[in-house]
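As described in the Methods, two query proteins were run sequentially through the folding procedure within a single session, without resetting any intermediate state between them. The first query and its resulting structure tokens are shown here.
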Amino acid sequence: MIAGEQLLGPLLLARGTVDRSAAMRADADALERAWADPATRVLLVSEGQTLVSRAGGQVTAVLYGTAEAPPGERYFLGVESGVSYFAVAAPLPVPPRGDANGRVTVPMRIDETPDGRPVAAGLRQVGGLLGDRDAGLLVYAVALEAWHGTHQHCPRCGSPTEVQHGGHVRVCPRDGSQHFPRVDPAVIMLVRDADDRCLLARGPQWPAGRMSVLAGFVEPGESLEHAVVREVAEEVGIAVTRPRYLGSQPWPFPRSLMLGFFADALSTDVTLDLEEIAEARWFTREELAGALASGEVRLPPPVSIARRLIETWYGGHLAGDW
């Protein structure tokens, strides 16, 4: 890492204050005592959303006592200052903003809701607005819910599995095999050329003007650094060197861990993999600022590590969110 290469600003989904208290997970009696404690707080999660409320400029997650929590799969999230926290996967008491199936169809504007009125929202809408404790709880709960939702049967024999260890293990009652929550590592990299220009690209599924840095999943038997080099070569045909790790944050959509890098380009001619990339352009700082001001380009939201990488290269905060 060269001088000055430190991420500008916090990684908003890499926050949290609750001790995960892993030793409690295998103690069924301790978990039941924690659930019976009137001080215990419960976060409801449904298809990646929870309830939040606003009071002035502060956005908080709506937490319940265990007596108020609806039935559903229960995940132990940890302890802070003697208070235990759980998540319960269950329908939310108010319908999620979106279509009849609960899919969010437009960005939620939490600032437009009346103070104190609960509203359903996901990490993309409020991950950067919540405080450290609530952001950490929601990232954790969303990741566990997504994994449990797709791993309800044993991959060995197909039998329905059972939730154990506070939601951190699923056990097959037929063959006794244990299955643990999965995390998929993905590299995300800002590529710079010899003139310190930044390469931004647009996926084919994105509307015109929506641009970001390159990213891709790490393959089996591959180091993070090799994944950076391979993904850039595959997506835009550019050879890069000196991958430099800058930071990471969970990205539970559904279960990724994004590992951020800078890398130096050995060439500037772009050859697109059109299945992955619709366009890619080099920007100076002045060119990017101008494109953002005109509305020609929009950047990923501040909750993403992509935005942090771009602003770190730029040297300051930028406007123009998706």
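Immediately afterward, the second query was submitted; its sequence and tokens are:
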Amino acid sequence: MTSAAPPAVLPASVDATLALLTANGYLAERALATVTFLALRMGRPLFLEGEAGVGKTEIAKVLAAALGRRLIRLQCYEGLDIASAVYEWNTAAQMIAIRLAEAAGDTDRDRLAADIFAERYLIKRPLLQALEPDVSGAPVLLIDELDRADEAFEAYLLEVLSDFQVTIPEFGTIATPHPPIVIVTSNRTREIHDALKRRCLYHWVDYPSAERELAIVKSKVPGISAALSAQVVAFVQALRAQDFYKSPGVAETLDWATALTELDARSLTPQLVGDTLGALLKYQDDIARMQGDTMQKLVKVATAQ
């Protein structure tokens, strides 16, 4: 049986953090590398806010891979509760234990209560899993799209993010001497309360510059020609300057570039763009607005590169 690999050492500088992210395929701007370095050094959660598809979730995945840590993801949604996010009791197993005790004539209620609320009956969900010791080092806890969860759940997170502990009434308080690396993301569909933001370091993840987006496309879409990649980025950058309901993020740029590559495209044309807009825009109203003069204009801008 082979022993687990030792945990990777945390980067010692902003430059080392930037190099670590780049080496693992995440082309970050220096400001993001700086706040990531500080979050790692200070042991503070990192709160990333920005439009969907700009790479907020990806940074947690890249950090886990680069540091050799386990990634624990809590996907937030409306109605998310403690039973799904933190813990719940295995009631079926508890009932069996009670029946067996009754059959054996065990009537000591205090001892039975202590037994059925033992750790072996505790089902650990992502937040509680993140507090468990790990030989590979503290895990990376991704709390994804917190803005989709209810405010009551957001309030519950305050104890977890402040003291890195969870209180279970029937069991006690579970804490960890080695807090997880926490990444919290939000698409800003609603405002997150200041009390939670104060416990985190904050960074707004914006759309990338044309130069950085071009580097991302070349890195993530193998086989794309230099000419087509430049046209794709120029088109997307020009499109974001328009007044659309939802501008495409980097994820959509990569999807579109991949789709065009699969079609063996060599250059953008109005026909080609019109046929593949579903990879780039996700709302019919936005697609409808792209017809006619708007599309012709953006294609002309892109192909002039």
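The first strand starts at residue 46 and ends at 49. We note this only descriptively and draw no conclusion about the first query from it.
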